[in-house]
Design goal:
The protein has helices at residues 9-14, 47-52, 100-104, 119-124, 126-133, 145-152; strands at residues 3-4, 30-33, 36-39, 65-70, 86-90, 112-117, 137-141, 167-171, 177-181. The protein has 188 residues and is of the alpha/beta class. The longest helix is centred in the last third of the chain and has 8 residues, at 126-133. It is elongated and about 65 Å long.
Length: 188
């Protein structure tokens, strides 16, 4: 929790701050967290960063399969379909009990497989999710922090997303977590 600058010592204390830590002349974006002074600034994303994460530029490719948990597959706007080496599979179309190897085998093992499902669908197929997570990226899109924690088992908060429609969290098998951009905004 960050306590930003407030106009009076009284309001500072009412919001949970210590009276001794009140600073009358904090600049805009100035505040305190856990007893430490901090300054919050916003830097607009560089165009080159957006270009690196543009459609077809899915940056996480730690394995031959990607698992996607999303609240709405329609909101993905074909982010993975635009990559010519990807095969996109809807989790609902996979028969229960299908082994992970049957999904990633494909034509002589060529290409990248993307399996998309809702968080609830993945939690109902926990054994498949667990097996896939050990060797695949897990992309969590359009979900809240509670769904992210339930799917990943992580207690730490994921980094904030600047655009929840286009951005997602990507957890690699080694535990590295990153924000990624899946594609262009949906057409209206």
């Amino acid at each position: 929790r960050v306590l930003l600058a407030l106009p009076s010592r009284h309001e500072h204390v009412l919001h949970g701050g210590l009276s001794a830590r009140f600073v009358d002349a904090l600049p805009a974006g100035g505040g305190h967290r856990d007893g430490r002074r901090l300054q919050i600034a916003w830097v607009p994303p560089a165009d080159s960063a957006d270009a690196a994460l543009s459609p077809g530029g899915y940056p996480c490719r730690s394995g031959r399969m990607t698992i996607v948990a999303t609240t709405s597959t329609a909101r993905l706007d074909g982010a993975f379909d635009r990559d010519p080496v990807s095969t996109v599979i809807d989790l609902a179309s996979i028969e229960p009990g299908t082994p992970l190897g049957a999904l990633s085998a494909g034509d002589q093992g060529a290409g990248h497989v993307v399996v998309i499902g809702t968080p609830d669908a993945w939690q109902s197929r926990w054994s498949l999710l667990t097996a896939a997570r050990s060797r695949s990226d897990l992309v969590v899109h359009g979900c809240g922090v509670a769904e992210f924690r339930a799917l990943t088992g992580l207690r730490a908060l994921p980094p904030p997303l600047s655009d929840p429609v286009r951005d997602a969290w990507c957890l690699e098998p080694g535990g590295s977590l990153a924000r990624i951009r899946l594609g262009a905004p949906p057409r209206s």
